[in-house]
Amino acid sequence: MLLSGRYEILALPEILKVKTQDDVMRLEDIAILVIKKYTDLFYRKYAKRFETGNLNYNNVGKQMVLPFVSEKGEKYVLQIKKKDEKGKPINRDLINKIKELKRNLNKLLKEESEELPRVYLDSHLYLPILVQSTKIDKISPEELVESEADFVKELKEYLKRNKERFRNYKIYLLRNFPKIGVGFQLQWSGFYPDFIMWITNGKKQIMVFVDPKGLVHTKGLDDEKVVFAGFKSSDSDAITIKDIEKKLGKENVVL
After folding, report:
1. Which residues contact 98 (CB under 8 A, 6 or more apart)?
2. Could you tell me the pTM of the whole model?
3. Could you write out the three-class secondary structure of the chain?
4. Cα(69)–Cα(175) distance, rounded to whole angstroms?
C-alpha cells in the first residue's frame, strides 16, 4: 500500500488528474513504478550491506585490472571542442600542445602546464593524475577536483619533508573509481572513497580510505561517514571500518 505524503512525483498537473478509467489505469502504472523502484532500492541496499559486512582480503593478482582506467584501456580520453557554434576552428593551440605532451612522456609526467593541469606522485599507481580544467570539456576517467588535487599535492610535500621518517615504509596511492570501484554500503547510502592508500612496513599493512571533501555538508557526528570511521554510539548496529577489520581476522592488516 502506498501511503500518502511519503512519495514525491514530479509531473505535469494533468498527469495526476482522474476523469476517466484510463486516468485510473495511468495512476496504477505510476504506483507500480514507485513500488518497483522501492523494491529495487531496498534489495540493493541490503545486498550491499551484506557484502560490506562480509568483505574479504586477498593479494592482488596479475589478473586484476586497476579500477581507475578508461573504457578503452589504461589511458585518458580527452574531449575538446574543435569548432565553435558557427563552425569556426577553436582550441588548435591547446590540442597541439596536448599532442606534444603525449609524445613526450618525461614532460607529461614531471612538468606542470596550464594546458593540461596534472599532479605527479611517485607512489601513485596511475600516472599522471589529471586535474579538472575549464579548457577541456570532458576527461575520462574522471579528473581530480580542486580538493582532491590539494590532497595529493599536500601528501606529496608531506612525504618529501618526512622522507627519513618513512624510510622503512612503502606507500601507494590509488584514485578510486566512483560507483564501480571499492565501495562500502552504509546504513542509507553507498560510500566510494576518492582514494585508497596502502602503507606497508614489513608484514604490516595499513589500508586508508581517503575522502578529502571536508565535513561541511555532513550532519555532525551522526553523519554516516563519521560513524563508519568508528565513531558510533554503543547501541548502534551500524557497520564501521573497524568492524570490517575485526572480521578479516588478520593481525597484520589495519583499516
Report:
1. 78, 80, 115, 116
2. 0.66
3. CCCCCCCCCCCCHHHHCCCCHHHHHHHHHHHHHHHHHHHHHHHHHHHHHHHHHCCCCCCCCCCCCCCCCECCECCCEEECCCECCCCCECCHHHHHHHHHHHHCHHHHHHCCCCCCCEECCCCECCCCEEECCCCCCEEECCCECHHHHHHHHHHHHHHHHCCCCCCCCEEEEEECCCCCCCCEECCCCEECCCEEEEEEECCEEEEEEECCCCCCCCCHHHCHHHHHCCCCCCCCCCCCHHHHHHHHCCCCEEC
4. 10
220 or 69, which is more confident? 220
CA 211, CA 113: separation in Å to the nearest integer? 26
Q: How confident is the model at residue 165 (pLDDT cuts 50, 70, 90)?
A: very high
79's CB contacts (< 8 A; 6+ apart) are 136, 137, 138, 139, 140
Amino acid at 181: G
**Beta carbons within 10 angstroms of residue 125's beta carbon:** 13
Q: How far apart are CA 225 and CA 231, in angstroms?
A: 9
Residue 185: which residues within 8 A CB-CB, separation 6 or more?
A: 45, 48, 49, 51, 52, 191
In DSSP terms, 74 is beta-bridged to none
Distance CA 62, CA 94 (A): 37
Q: What is the rounded (10 degree) CA torsion for 187, 190, 196, 202?
A: 40
pLDDT of residue 185: 73
Spatial contact of 116 and 107, defined as CB atoms under 8 Å apart: no
